[in-house]
Design goal:
There is one protein chain. This protein is of the alpha/beta class. The protein contains 23 helices and 22 strands. The strands form 3 sheets. Strands 5, 14, 15, 16, 17, 18, 19, 20, 21 and 22 form a 10-stranded mixed sheet that branches. An 8-stranded parallel β-barrel has the order 6-7-8-9-10-11-12-13, surrounded by 6 helices. A 4-stranded antiparallel sheet has the order 1-2-3-4.
């Protein structure tokens, strides 16, 4: 482990929903930052703001044991670990898993439920070794298990659990003969492993293989629930779902096992109604259906003792606490209570024992524990000052000044009038006319440039005047904040680190990790360093009182120029709730590879320590992924440089410098350093 760093500053302010002050009429405080960025909503108690305006992670939801993210980022930079960097907080992951355990324990006690509970982690959610090892160790303490959805995952899970032979292992996904044979032999080895039948052919394969090896297997049966799912992945349930047996196929499976004297081997009933279920009502109806199927199969003599409700326990990504696709309208405790109550009610009605409850809540386990810190490279914005002197000079050079220019000058001069909506209408109409005239060749390029500067300056003044009233923007001006938002260029790839933001419009919370005691004066969207126009983040987590999915810009700070005017001081943003799926789904768009990953833990004295550092991909590594040979590239480049030196296009020093840059680039980080 790396040596402990200095203790994080005390005095962390715990986020509260009632701390909002109107930033337009009062001095800016960190309480305004809490409200503006929604930290109290999507942060789930794991984030706070210190007196210096630095964002802090509270891995155990304890303000006395916090990690200053800005201080941590600078500490990593001093160790040669530059942004973008993924941060994983192992203590937070442990705390989150413990919370799920506690929620079900409380629900079991409250409902006088006779069965137990285990959460099963599907490693497809995040297959990184350190994450899986951390979850395995915590799972051993909490009585949880692991799930494999493919043959490679099965081999990984078996290797992970060698020292924990009793840990439950659930096997989902398509199964061939080799997969099934591995499961049966693992059962013979003494493992607590349950293959789940997704198709009837798999049941035949499991029975044949187990008889061949003389094994009494544990078998799970996945059914297709008729109750509708919810959210973005609701199509993964119902009669057209990819996996599972219909009611008639389920009865065929029961007869098949009974005829072979293996009805007692059917120990688990399983279903899945989708990932990131946003509405608790979807769970209620589906679990009731599953529980009644369970009771019916018990009545038919099956040896059922477990009921697996699958995945779906969601995460509030946008902070709206609603049934939007990026949120949930329930808590973990409500989820646990509803599941336990409904399964108990169905079993009590049928007069059967309460089963062991399993849930595959991978997203809810790991999402909060991982975040990314990235640095802002620069910004493009719209002019505030139209430079009227320059515009007058350009107008003087024209044979005839276009009318739209005169109209925009008039609108600009009225920008502080009471009727701001009328001013904006006039400016917008003049701009539309100017664009049409330019396309027809009636307006020169200098006049078009003047029109653009006048329009943006007028629009920004109108927005400032309308916002200063403290009232909601009129409908005709409601789109101005989005129209006038700056573009902040950030050192990361959406496709590598936030693929769901691009692929399925998933919202991930983002906010600065420092300067939170300063009023943000800019509105912006975030662009990554790829050359793809889709590499843009323009949907953000809600601020207090805002409807889900409607925040199209982020409140940001101006970039502080360095002395001399070249470049700016570092400005860091944090992207949160990245622990589920993002790392394993990331791709090599523009050959931007894996980022650095750092595992951070709390020491006993409350200081942070670096438990493990996984350096990101180098350029030569990602080139190798796409079948380029770095050494061959080096040789080709060196030959070209030597030819250039021989022909006098480069001198020896220039050729040596070019090769040095080329070779160091191959060995360097794929991101900008």
């Amino acid at each position: 482990m790396a040596p402990p760093h200095t203790r994080a500053p005390t005095g962390i302010r715990v986020t509260q929903t009632d701390l909002h002050q109107d930033a337009l009429t009062a001095n800016w405080t960190v309480r305004d930052a809490v409200s503006t960025y929604g930290l109290d909503a999507w942060g789930a108690g794991y984030l706070g703001i210190g007196p210096e305006g630095h964002l802090a992670v509270l891995p155990e939801q304890d303000p006395a044991r916090s990690i200053d993210l800005y201080e941590l980022t600078l500490g990593l930079r001093d160790r040669g670990i530059t942004t973008p960097v993924i941060l994983r907080f192992d203590d937070l992951l442990d705390h989150r898993m413990t919370q799920i355990r506690r929620a079900f324990d409380d629900a079991i006690t409250e409902n006088e439920y006779g069965g137990g509970y285990a959460c099963i982690y599907p490693i497809k959610v995040n297959q990184q070794r350190h994450v899986c090892e951390q979850i395995r160790d915590t799972a051993a303490r909490l009585g949880f298990g692991l799930e494999a959805g493919s043959k490679p995952e099965l081999l990984a899970v078996l290797g992970l659990t060698c020292e924990h032979p009793d840990m439950p292992i659930v096997c989902n996904g398509f199964k061939d003969a080799e997969y099934v044979e591995t499961v049966i032999l693992a059962r013979k080895l003494g493992r607590n492993i349950i293959p789940v039948v997704e198709r009837f052919e798999e049941l035949e394969l499991i029975v044949e293989t187990s008889q061949r090896y003389g094994v009494r297997p544990k078998i799970g049966l996945r059914i297709k629930p008729m109750s509708p799912g919810g959210g973005r992945w609701e199509s993964s349930t119902g009669p057209r779902s990819k996996f599972g047996l219909t009611a008639s196929q389920t009865l065929d499976a029961v007869r098949y096992l009974s005829d072979r004297g293996m009805g007692d081997c059917l120990c688990m009933l399983h279903f899945h109604i989708g990932s990131q279920i946003c509405d608790i009502r979807s769970f209620k109806s589906a679990v009731s259906e599953l529980a009644h199927v369970y009771a019916e199969l018990k009545r038919l003599g099956m040896g059922l003792e477990m009921i697996d409700v699958g995945g779906g326990l969601g995460v509030d990504y946008d902070g709206s606490r609603s049934a939007s696709e990026s949120s949930v309208n329930y808590t973990v405790q409500e989820y646990a209570s509803d599941l336990v109550y409904r399964i108990k009610a169905a079993c009590d009605d049928a007069g059967i024992e309460h089963p062991m409850i399993l849930s595959e809540s991978g997203r809810a386990m790991v999402a909060h524990s991982t975040m990314m810190v990235l640095d802002v490279l620069g910004r493009t914005d719209f002019p505030i000052d139209p430079d009227l002197d320059e515009i007058q000079e350009a107008m003087a050079a024209e044979d005839e000044v276009p009318q739209p220019v005169l109209d925009l000058i008039d609108a600009y001069e009225r920008r502080e009038s009471e009727n701001l909506v009328e001013v904006y209408h006039d400016a917008s109409q003049a701009r539309v006319e100017a664009i049409s005239l330019f396309a027809l060749g009636y307006i020169s390029l200098p006049m078009r440039a003047a029109i653009e500067r006048l329009f943006w300056a007028t629009a920004r003044s109108v927005l400032a005047g309308a916002t200063a009233t403290g009232r909601a923007l009129p409908d005709d001006l409601a789109g101005l904040p989005d129209l006038l938002s700056d573009i902040y260029f950030c050192n990361f790839s959406v496709f590598q680190s936030m693929p769901d933001a691009w692929a399925v419009d998933q919202i991930f919370p983002i906010c600065p990790i420092h300067r939170l005691n300063e009023r943000p004066t800019r509105l912006g969207v975030l662009a990554d360093v790829t050359c793809d126009s889709d590499g843009l983040i323009d949907r953000f987590a809600c601020r207090e009182g805002q409807p889900a999915g409607q925040k199209r810009h982020l409140e940001l700070h101006d970039l502080t120029p360095l002395p001399g005017g070249v470049g700016h001081e570092p400005y860091y943003l944090g992207v949160f709730l990245l622990g589920a799926y993002q790392e394993v789904l990331g791709d090599l768009h523009n050959l931007f590879g894996d980022t650095h990953v750092v595992h951070v833990v709390l020491d006993e004295d409350g200081s942070w320590m670096l438990d493990e550092i996984v350096e990101g991909d180098t350029v030569k590594e990602v080139l190798g992924y796409v079948q380029f040979e770095p050494e061959k590239l080096r040789r080709s480049m060196r030959r070209e440089v030597e030819r250039a030196v021989k022909r006098g296009r480069l001198n020896v020093g220039e050729g040596t410098a070019l090769m040095r840059f080329y070779e160091s680039g191959l060995d360097g980080y794929t991101y900008l350093e």
